[in-house]
Amino acid sequence: MNRVPKNLIIAIDGPVAAGKTTAARLLAQRLGYCHIDSGAMYRALAWKALKQEVDLSDPRSLLGLLAQTALELRPAAEGLRVFVDGEDITDVLRLPKVQAAASLVSVHPKVREELVQRQRQLGTHGGVVMDGRDIGTVVFPHAAVKFYLTASLEERGRRRYQESLQDLGTLESTLEEVERRDQRDMGRAASPLKPAPDAILIDTAPLSPEEVVTQMEEHIQRKLKS
Ligand code: DC
Q1: Is 199 exposed, middle or buried (0-12, 13-18, 19+ CB in 10 A)?
Q2: Tens of pLDDT, residues 107-157
Q3: DSSP-derived secondary structure letter, 139
Q4: Are 47 and 100 in contact (CB under 8 A)?
Q5: How far apart are the CA of 186 and the centre of ligand 1, in A?
Q6: Count H helices, E strands: the chain?
Q7: Cα(106) to centroid of ligand 1, in Å?
Q8: What confidence tens digit (pLDDT) does each residue in 112-125 have?
Q9: Which of 91, 120, 154, 167 has the fewest Cβ atoms nearer than 10 Å?
Q10: Which letter does DSSP use for residue 207 in this model?
Q11: Where in the chain are the domains?
Q12: What is this structure's pTM?
């Protein structure tokens, strides 16, 4: 295997529960890169908006809130920890109500512009694997390698349900929520979720996370050779 240069940007996009964040974390570990979960930034803003009872449909208020928010992603052994104004809020970001609020917050073009700017800053020096919905299309259109992970709605609903059993939703209600988020993420006017024309598509349904990452490494090697 050729050595992968230390300064590339690798983009991973795809719908909810396609396995992006796990694959991005493992790939970053294998390459010695930094993993940035851009969804965590939308969730963090959504969490603060819920806490301060800011109207999720009002982009001006959300932008004002964002301007006063110190948002930090710190790598830790078990994955990224997310800090808002110095407080570690990683665990609450998984709550379904925060996820649903993040999807609402992310439809506003001005909010996206601000977060995209912060994401680009984090990637300035390369050596980054960033996952999200618009990384290969908008944030880093010149990323060295782009992946688009998919899996059927049923598979993704099942995964999300297994992850969040403690939240007491049913499999059916989880599937409906995943479908609603897909529709919102793919149907919004600003940076809708779609594969970049040069993205490599991987169906993660039949694969373990390690197998997904092995396929990604093979694609990266092939791309470097060409
Ligand atoms: O990846 P995630 O499920 O943590 O993302 C939470 C929400 O944020 C998701 O509904 C879509 C939105 N999002 C986005 O619009 N653009 C990104 N780059 C990342 C996430």
Answers
A1: buried
A2: 999 999 999 999 999 999 999 999 999 999 999 999 999 999 999 999 999
A3: I
A4: no
A5: 11
A6: 8, 8
A7: 7
A8: 999 999 999 999 99
A9: 91
A10: S
A11: 9-221
A12: 0.94
